[in-house]
Amino acid sequence: MSDRNDVPYVPADTNMAELTFKAILLGVVMAIVLGAANAYVGMKAGLTVAAAFPAAVVAMAVLRPFRGTILEENIARTTASVGESLMAGAIFTIPAFVITGAWDTLRYWESTAIMLVGGVVGVLFVIVLRRTLVVEADLPFPESVAAAEIVKAGQGGQTGAKFVFGGIVLAAVWELFKNTNGILLIKEKTAGAIAFGRSSISVMGEKAEYAGGGLYLQTPAASPMLMGVGYIVGFRVSAILFSGAVMGWLFLVPLAVFLNPGLSASLAPATDLVALSEDVWFNQIRPLAVGTMIVAAFWTLWGLRGPLVSGIRKALAEINLGEAAGRTPRTEIDLPFKHVLIGIGGMGLATFFLYLYFTGSVLGAVILTAVMLILGFLFSAVAGYLVGLIGNSNNPISGLTLTALLFAAVLMVAIGLTDMSGVAGVLAVAGVVCCAAGIAGDMMQDLKVGHILGGTPWRMEVGEIIGVIGAAVVLAVALNVMDAAYTIGSAELPAPQAGLMALIANGIVGGEMAWPLVIAGMFFAVGLILVSAPAPMLIAVGMYLPFYSTAAIFVGGLIRALFEWRVRRAGLGEERRQKAENKGILLSSGFIAGESLMAVALAFLFLGQDFIPTLARWKAAVTPTGSGSLVLGLLAYPAIVALLAWLPLKNESE
């Protein structure tokens, strides 16, 4: 492979400050902050957004006054992005312990142990695979190249920090005035229902009277965060996700209500029909969506079988344990493989005791440890390969985790561990594998950015390990706080992937699967596959999420489409188009960080009322009565259109 990225921005023979205390400290702080923010957006929207772009901009903005070098900025960004990927692995799995009933509440030490073991083992697996996937494989690494270009542009003074921080401030203020734990002046959404008339239908020669049911309607959330997610993933992805919402909320929910006339016979159309529709979605449509997710996850992996198998085979065949670091350029030196393999062995032993704690069975712990090591390495390679193809934001680690969970669940049933300890053991495997795969994908992206910029691999790997340890210790606290303030698994924080893991674990191990609905969902996925529907997994996630969430993401996708139409109409050249696009992405990243960070901060304040009476009195004094103004909420839409579709093009017309 020979392209412009073969020659690093900083030459290999350059001696420059890199792995410094200030770079690591900034990276760990950003890892914690961005990890907490992504936990909220991930459980709210079902999607996580790569932290590489905001982390790169913040690293440049903060380190520049302290004469930080480009390689120190690279270390800070690398360490920071760990928080997002580690928390993605955590929120997809750890809340499932509570949803299944294995835990009464989220547990700090157990959650920290899962994140710590999974994160560290993910880093160690990637070190083994780095040379093959980053240097030798012919992979485009789209997000890595984009992040590197932002850093290069920043060396000329164009950091883009004002867009990130401006977005953070605007979204944080908005969240303060719409959050139930803040100063509630803004109502971000409303729902209603249109009642159908009574119907008389013949079934088996008998006339059946139907109360009619109705059509549930809800506005998109007036959320800069959700619209920012839609803007970043683009119109195509957001439209596919929203098609699932249309299928679930506007087709299946009315159908289920209509076909159960006893449910709606005595309801008042304007009030009870709304509650009934939401209850039907929660208890009937979501299990159906789970069945769709199962088939869709395996179909996604099956479609990637060719490149995945060849990439993994090449990675395994080309591991070189005898590399002589003394004759290797600085830009190609990893941590010693001997130490890495010892570390993997140590993590395997730690995992055994972790699984023994969960299952209470030596045999179960041995089997689950073997599953984790084999599938963890395999899926780390898969995640790294996929990041090279499609970027970290689109890395389907939930599908990889589901596969590991199914393997572990079947094995637990085979050895007779079918009680709640078996469920806990299966979820622990899923948690470690998910964290490992998330870290692997993120780290492969970071290492490619470092490869382009001229970073030293072993220093970046040390930064990743420190970032994992720092983030794991703190982020479990953030999870507990958000659960206490918003209730994970509720409509406020639905955590769709964790709900999926919980349902599968309970269904297979505990025998509580809602099989009729799940099987119907599986056949629905088969139908989607037969007509070549794009991304059945995204369609299923759209069915699983609240309507206001997917609708707001779709609005963000529409704004991105409007922006791209204006770019084409303006006839911008490639350089100016890229600059305008980066402004929009950085603004969106700021919206996501600002709204989610304010939500996390308000959650801490909410809990603080129990310990600090002054906080309770302050909240009572500043919070008005009522549920906020919907008219004020509607102002978000034109404001976000102006900020994301017009502002990025200002001063960019040729």
Describe this structure in words.
Helix 3 packs antiparallel against helix 15, helix 5 packs across helix 13 (362-390) and helix 15 packs across helix 16. The chain has 654 residues and is mainly α. The protein has helices at 21-45, 52-63, 70-91, 95-100, 108-136, 142-154, 161-176, 224-258, 261-264, 272-303, 305-317, 337-359, 362-390, 397-414, 420-453, 457-486, 496-509, 515-530, 536-544, 547-570, 574-608, 613-622, 630-634, 636-646; strands at 191-195, 199-203, 206-210, 214-218.
Give the averaged pLDDT, no decimals.
Answer: 81
| Distinct helical segment count | 24
- SSE order: HHHHHHHEEEEHHHHHHHHHHHHHHHHH
Q: Strand order, biggest sheet?
A: 1-4
Largest sheet: 2 strands, antiparallel
Work out the helicity level.
over 70%
The rough form would be described as globular
Low-pLDDT stretches are 1-5, 320-325
Overall SS class: mainly alpha
Our Rg estimate from Cα atoms comes to 25 Å
Report how far apart the termini are.
35 Å
Percent strand equals under 5%
Tell me how many strands there are: 4
The oligomeric state of the chains shown is single chain
